């Protein structure tokens, strides 16, 4: 048993014993108070009367009444654009040191999310919280001697008008503490390589020089990296190269759709820990092995609010109507879907992050991501959320012994009638598309009451088209969104779906 690993494990165990869990409600009150006090003299704080909010008897209620909801387009057009004109003290004191380029899943251009020094510190603190939670897992001491492969975006940040720009994983990795650099792989030189394929090639070439104990990154791109390493070294699975691999920290998307294809690359199961790091901040991380839910980090510079996820509150572009009710953490209920709003130390205010969540344990403030507001398929009243789509894919995986790491769907008209057209990524041969469509349709009708009603009325059928998983990756690359934080869009609007179908036709024609 490695001595140094025992020391680290002992420190983590001790920290877990002497550090008490914060009262989430009180912590959120203090976070909101800090945000308002810090930003009260900014242009935003003056416009929305933060001083008056702080003097009110109930600052949570006053804050919700005075400050409207913001999505990216609105806050960028009304406030953040002033930073790019050279102004300071707009939504947060000073000017942001970084901008996170959100590769996203919707929209034609990357969003540019302000990232302040306070947010960098917040993300670092959340990482420490996550590491401390390893005390709850039955990991041997020598695990803490192993290296960690963090597969994110390039750390070669670009200077632009006095600040640095890059994806949030690249910003985070470029700010790792010195003591951690000895554990961090692929290391600074390889991490700076901007081209995804070149970076993964270098990882494959160096893989056997590293003793990797943990992986961290988005599942789809982690799979591609592992496949490249396996192929390069001509082995059966990733454990033939990294025999001490024991932990995978997932994030960005639900892991369940990738579970089967991911596990196929392993010699034996490993511990999977979910995290929730968005371009706007480190929101939650899994802290207990007996659940796959994540605990909201309530004392670390992010204030949370929740809008009930109901069709009447969601506009066509995925934003929230101004009259939608908001619920503070103190009033949420378990197993109900909510649209997540955040206010942060980066000068993000009542911001629609785009995700929907549900609480699995209200007392522990534990959540699961259930989908995206823009990926809510409700063209003909089907009210189909991403979590139901994921469930449908898992049903097909089990029933037909197949792996479905990627999929997308759109409501399209076929012979003048609405259908849900699914494109499913799988490498398995000999499957019948019509049979899969019927099985998926039957499952969704049984699992989703509103979908069943829609199928009896305006939604006339389901169509399935099978393609290789590589087609999805090539689509991302064609849109200059390959690797790092990139997530495939699960629901496409009609115009984009036409582009997708044309792309698929071209891809399959060249095979």
TrEMBL record:
GO terms for cellular component: cytoplasm. Pfam families: GH3, GH3_C, GH3_M. The lineage of its organism: Bacteria, Pseudomonadati, Bacteroidota, Flavobacteriia, Flavobacteriales. Residues 392-495 form the GH3 C-terminal domain. This is GH3 auxin-responsive promoter. InterPro entries: GH3, GH3_C, GH3_M. Residues 297-362 form the GH3 middle domain. It comes from the Bacteria. GO terms for molecular function: acid-amino acid ligase activity.
């Amino acid at each position: 048993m490695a001595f140094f690993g025992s020391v680290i494990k002992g420190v983590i165990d001790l920290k877990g014993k002497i550090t008490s869990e914060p009262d989430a409600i009180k912590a959120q009150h203090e976070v909101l108070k800090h945000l308002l006090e810090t930003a009260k003299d900014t242009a935003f704080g003056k416009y929305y009367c933060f001083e008056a909010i702080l003097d009110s008897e109930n600052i949570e209620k006053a804050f919700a009444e005075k400050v409207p909801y913001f999505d990216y387009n609105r806050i960028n057009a009304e406030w953040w654009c002033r930073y790019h004109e050279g102004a300071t003290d707009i939504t947060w004191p000073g000017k942001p040191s970084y901008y996170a380029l959100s590769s996203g899943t919707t929209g034609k251009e990357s969003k540019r999310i302000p990232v302040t020094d306070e947010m960098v510190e917040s993300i670092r603190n959340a990482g420490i919280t996550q590491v401390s939670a390893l005390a709850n897992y039955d990991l041997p001491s020598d695990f803490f001697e192993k290296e960690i492969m963090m597969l994110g975006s390039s750390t070669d940040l670009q200077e632009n008008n006095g600040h640095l720009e890059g994806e949030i994983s690249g910003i985070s990795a470029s700010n790792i503490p010195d003591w951690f650099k000895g554990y961090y792989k692929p290391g600074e030189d390889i991490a700076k390589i901007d081209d995804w394929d070149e970076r993964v090639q270098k990882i494959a070439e160096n893989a056997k020089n590293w003793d990797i104990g943990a992986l961290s990154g988005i599942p789809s791109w982690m799979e591609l990296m592992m496949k490249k390493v396996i192929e390069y070294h001509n082995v059966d699975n990733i454990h033939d190269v990294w025999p001490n691999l024991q932990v995978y920290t997932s994030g960005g998307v639900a892991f369940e759709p990738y579970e089967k294809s991911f596990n196929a690359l392993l010699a034996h199961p490993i511990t999977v820990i979910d995290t929730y790091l968005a371009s706007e901040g480190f929101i939650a991380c899994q802290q207990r092995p007996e659940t796959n839910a994540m605990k909201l980090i309530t004392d670390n510079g992010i204030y949370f609010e929740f809008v009930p996820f109901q069709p009447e509150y969601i506009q066509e572009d995925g934003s929230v109507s101004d009259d939608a009710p908001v619920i503070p953490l103190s009033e949420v209920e378990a197993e109900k879907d909510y649209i997540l709003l955040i206010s942060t130390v980066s000068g993000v205010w009542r911001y629609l992050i785009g995700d929907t969540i549900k609480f699995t344990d209200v007392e522990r403030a534990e959540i699961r991501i259930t989908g995206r507001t823009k990926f809510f398929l409700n063209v003909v009243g089907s009210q189909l959320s991403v979590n139901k789509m994921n469930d449908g894919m898992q049903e097909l995986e089990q029933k037909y012994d197949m792996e479905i790491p990627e999929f997308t769907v759109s409501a399209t008209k076929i012979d003048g009638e609405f259908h849900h057209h699914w494109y499913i990524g799988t490498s398995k041969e000999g499957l019948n598309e019509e049979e899969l469509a019927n099985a998926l349709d039957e499952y969704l009708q049984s699992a989703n009451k509103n979908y069943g009603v829609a199928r009896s009325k305006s939604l006339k059928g389901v169509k399935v088209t099978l393609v290789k998983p590589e087609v999805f990756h090539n689509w991302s690359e064609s849109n200059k969104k390959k690797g790092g934080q990139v997530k495939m869009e699960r629901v496409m609007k009609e115009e984009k779906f036409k582009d997708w179908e044309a792309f698929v036709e071209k891809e399959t024609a060249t095979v």
